[in-house]
Amino acid sequence: MSATAPRATKAVIPAAGFATRFLPVTKAIPKELLPIVDKPVLQYIVEEAAAAGADDVTLVTAPGKDAMIDYFDARADLDNALKAKGKDAMLAKVKAPESIAEMTAIRQGGAKGLGHAVGRAAGHVGDEPFAVLLGDEWCHLDDKLLPRMIDLQAETGGIVLALIEVPEDQVSRYGVAAVRPTDAEDVVEVTGLVEKPAVEDAPSNLILIGRYVLPGAIFPVLEETEPGSGGEIQLTDAMETMRAKGTPVHAVVFRGRRYDTGEPVAYLQTLVELATQRDDLPGFNAWLREFSATLD
């Protein structure tokens, strides 16, 4: 692959779901805006994309979720109120999201699957490579998962996935990759994808997480992909079609810090873990130790 191959500078964040695991709060507040103390999940994800150079971000949304794009927009009345009260530090926090990335919103037009959601961004992305970041998890910026994936996609021109290892008895909950090793550390070639296999049928204990770097050539494939599991258009099916026709598929096996907010317990674990790392919450860690001692 030529050293001048284009590098992904655009990202797509599918965020149109109902988030039924978090109802009733998600009837009014998008799950992606649930706070990690005072910073929403979505900001962490957009920061991850921008830090990797993908600072042109498309949110695929649904009715009732306009607050996501509002969060990244200017709010003059609030700015002026904070200025008038001399709250400069708070004003800086409020203004910070406005300059992280260039944000665009597109309505999905119905819950028709992840593949359909990604396909809705075709008009904005065009034929360029792009990253897909699911809206309920992110990886620590210092561990540089997404930059490595983008670099690998530029080298291969194909599809790049992210995998993590899980205990073998958990594989039936996830999409699992069949792989073979490469010469690069923690990079594997993906030879197949199996959705939620029985433990005895799983080709490995490497599961897909919500990070992808894809060539723009996937968009016409998504248009032709028939509904699959759950009657929805599956991104996995389109990727498998491309792989079967010769598109190289590789994955980075990620061993760094990943934060999951996809269901209530995982969200609470992430919230508490990150709260303990903050210097501006005096007394929280001491309280947590005392409270933990009262638990059975």
TrEMBL record:
It comes from the Bacteria. The keyword Transferase applies. Residues 10-274 form the Nucleotidyl transferase domain. Coiled coil: none annotated. It holds the Pfam family NTP_transferase. Keywords: Nucleotidyltransferase, Transferase. The keyword Magnesium does not apply. GO terms for molecular function: UTP:glucose-1-phosphate uridylyltransferase activity. One of its GO terms (biological process) is UDP-alpha-D-glucose metabolic process. CDD domains: UGPase_prokaryotic. Its EC number is 2.7.7.9. Gene3D superfamilies: Spore Coat Polysaccharide Biosynthesis Protein SpsA, Chain A. It catalyses: alpha-D-glucose 1-phosphate + UTP + H(+) = UDP-alpha-D-glucose + diphosphate. InterPro entries: GalU_uridylyltTrfase_bac/arc, NTP_transferase_dom, Nucleotide-diphossugar_trans. PANTHER family: UTP--GLUCOSE-1-PHOSPHATE URIDYLYLTRANSFERASE. Belongs to the UDPGP type 2 family. This is UTP--glucose-1-phosphate uridylyltransferase.
